[in-house]
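ok here's the first one, seq then struct tokens
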Amino acid sequence: MTGYQRPIFHTEDGTPVPAVSIQEMREVDRIAVEDTGPNLLQMMEHAGLSLALLAIETLGHEWRSQQVMVLAGAGGNGGGGICAARHLANRGVDVLAVTTDAPARAGGALGQQLMALGEAPARIISFSDAFDVAAAGLVIDAVVGCSLSGAPRGSAMALIRAAAAATAPVLSLDVPSGVDADTGETPGVAVSSPETSGAVRRRQETLGSAGSGHACP
């Protein structure tokens, strides 16, 4: 794009960090997992803990008395959300995790996170079970994230619609589900979330100031 300037973000200590595209972010992840570390589970653990702490901050002083509903997809985004659910449950938060697929069928990093959550004082159900999003004091959206490819369908679409219907604050991991993190476009149903945590926490500011976006700082 002619005249496009890559947005620059700054860490808390003032270190400049250039924004990157989804493709570039995937290459960064690949190098970390295959060559330098941290590995996938370590990165997921950091993301989940950061998300849990941001959830507590969002809830404020009443965080111990609020229910947090985690809507988790089948990929890495869902794994990060399930990890956050465990950290919240272990701190005494009433947590309900709702997954796009039956928890018993999950494999890989998501399966490991679900096994760990099973040892915590949290409830885990599938999207096909009855749940009331209105009962939540905070909803964590960890359905799709940066892996979006076209309009969400099936169980992912159902959970995104649930998040979109929530009256409580919605906190999205990486990027609101259903939103293309590079362009800001929504090819189908999408979550409208003013708060995000993780690799694209400042996506909205990027798209608002630059017009088009390399949105994964």
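and now the second one, same deal
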Amino acid sequence: MELNLERYTLVVIVCVAWQSSNRGHGTVPVQNLIKVYSLNKIRQLALGLIIAFSALYYTIRNVSVNEVLASFAAIDYVYLIPSLLIILSSYVVHAFRWQILLLPLAKIPVAQLFSPIMVGAMGNILPGRPGEILRAWLLGKKLDLPVSGILASILIERLFDLVILLLLFTWILLFHAEVFSAQIQYSGLSVEAMAKGFGQVTGGLLLVLGIFIYCTVFHKDVLKKFIGKRMGKWQGKTELMIDNFSLGLQSIRNPMSLLKVTGYSILENAANIFAFYPLYWAYNLQDKSLTSLLILMVVVTIIIVALPTPAFLGSFNAGVLIALHEMGNESEVVAVGFGMVSWTLNFVVIFVAGLFFILRDQLTFGQLLKAGDQAK
């Protein structure tokens, strides 16, 4: 584990040094590299990698490499094409939804939104998974827009996604509660306990977000007065941030915009769910029902939220194993292979697209690592 961490750290440092030297900035001082890749980030990365490799060990502990390779050989690879297309379509729908939410700030062509979306998604590989902050920072820097207003639009995205996820979760609990058996355990916790905790946290978060957004949109002056007085010398900046944040939320006051955002949210989440479905046929799973697909999506979401790892490595795979093997009737080898293939498909799309836009927009890894601090 320590060897992998050192190797990853070295790769990042070499990439930053190489990019800077190739752009005429000369040799990168060691102090600058330490600032870019701080001890705090290394600790975050180390913790994420420990969780990731622990989850991976849990996933593959009972299968051999030969069995997994044999499962890869048995895949009908034709079905990977529609899966890739559905994954790509989800990002296209995401861009159209974000465009509507950004209208109070500016009318932005959809084509200009793909870069921050994909680089932001790729940013979840970095320590702390700062993808959303990175996305807001990139768009704000590119178009000279207030980051707080852009973050408001992202908050609305998460609100709609949480509502849809909570509805799916509630449906499964009402009609298929038996799948969350107390006998199925992961890291000493039963899946039943995880599911209940996830439902409570999601419901509470949804309530808090809803109240905050309502107050910001309809009672902005009261909110500014309440928060501003408690910020002392930061009162002016805090009130400006609330103004920008409120501006970013104005799209939900327009009934037509609200309707479009709702429709796009349903389409995007449907694409995220059905991106798994062609793999059901690629592996010729026993249960190809919609119920199995929804349970898979919910369980994977619960695990990746409970166990945050860089690029969801390990936690995603563990979620697939639990849903398909321990809750379903699929063999452990098939569930492990399914998890590896589906994670790889998502990662390839994000990494290739993110790298393309990084190179096109001439971004450096140092800028991406410092984006969170600059956004703050």
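notes on #2: The first strand starts at residue 185 and ends at 186. The mean pLDDT is 79.
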